[in-house]
Amino acid sequence: LGRRAAELAKGDGAPALSDEARSLHEQAIRAIKNAIAIAPNSPSDYYTLFWNLHEIGEDEAALGACHKALEIDPNHENAKLGIAHYYSALACRLGEEAEEATRQARAEHTGSGCAMPIAPKAKRLHTEAIEALEKAIAVDPDDAGHHYAMYWHWSSLGESENGRRACERAIELDPEHMESHWGLANCAFRVGEYEEALESYRKAERFGASGADFCEAVGDCLDRLQRFDESFDHYETSVQTYPQNKTLLRALYIAYARRERWADALPLAQRVVALGGDHNAHIAVASALGALGKFDEARTSLEAAVACAGHNVEPSIRLSKWHRENGSESDAKAVL
Fold first, then answer.
1. Average pLDDT for 325-335
2. What is the DSSP annotation of 87-126?
3. Taking all residues of the chain, what is their mean pLDDT, rounded to a whole number?
4. Rounded distance, CA 331 to CA 328, Å?
5. Is the pLDDT of residue 232 over 80?
6. Long-range contacts, stretch 21-26, CB < 8 angstroms, 24+ apart
7. Would residue 226 be called left, alpha or beta, if left means φ above 0 and alpha means ψ between -120 and 50 degrees?
């Protein structure tokens, strides 16, 4: 019955269990409970019960079935994996709730002008997720994925050292675990160990790391090491691959500005503006235009920066300075 239910779910892409599949799982549960009533000491029967209960979302009852299987046979590997799966899935759900709590807190914090600490609800959820993963690791200690998930929650709590240890353990178990090399690099970066971070980023890349976020991280690390020629080449290549990524466009703009190649820098800042960049993008356009001697156009960009800056006063200060430098003290005072 369970196999028939599983066959119904194959390839349909539906996130929800169909009524027919649910009915088959429920019939399977009744059948296996009858078997257990007759012969109650079969750990495999309890594991079969776990699997069918899990498939219909009865996770607490499923967990109990796995624990019963381990009472009968403490070495039953499938029962251990079932328990680990339960706690790993619980940690994943808690992590998703923590991310949502963080997004909500960030939206409420916008414009307050000071750094945002971790939201209390997010902190509680990440802590609960860590506790769940500890239970998963207790029964399935050799799964690198559990340790990497532990890194993610520790990192979200700002606990870089605990995150580092989790990644190191994952890499001991699976030396080619790409995500853990990436995580280890992030931990090193956060504490200023940029050489070590870059080495781990390179290993992550060797094992398949890619994407705009990864390019941003590598470039930032090269910049912190003041390896500007390498970061310049890196950003040029990255922008070709991810031409709509505002962070990479800004980074390449800065690399050109560092070389005073303002004619090359200007279109990058303009692309960021076109992609919905904030007041900083307009300021970057103004800086490039000013360096190229296009002062009236620079003023227009600064005015656009002021218009979208909200409570941020930097664009107003810059525009006031522009008026003052161009001989209009009254306009400078009016802006402020």
1. 62
2. HHHHHHHHHHHHHHHHHHHHHHHTTS-SPPPPPHHHHHHH
3. 90
4. 5
5. yes
6. 21/55, 22/56, 25/1, 25/52, 25/55, 25/56, 26/56
7. left
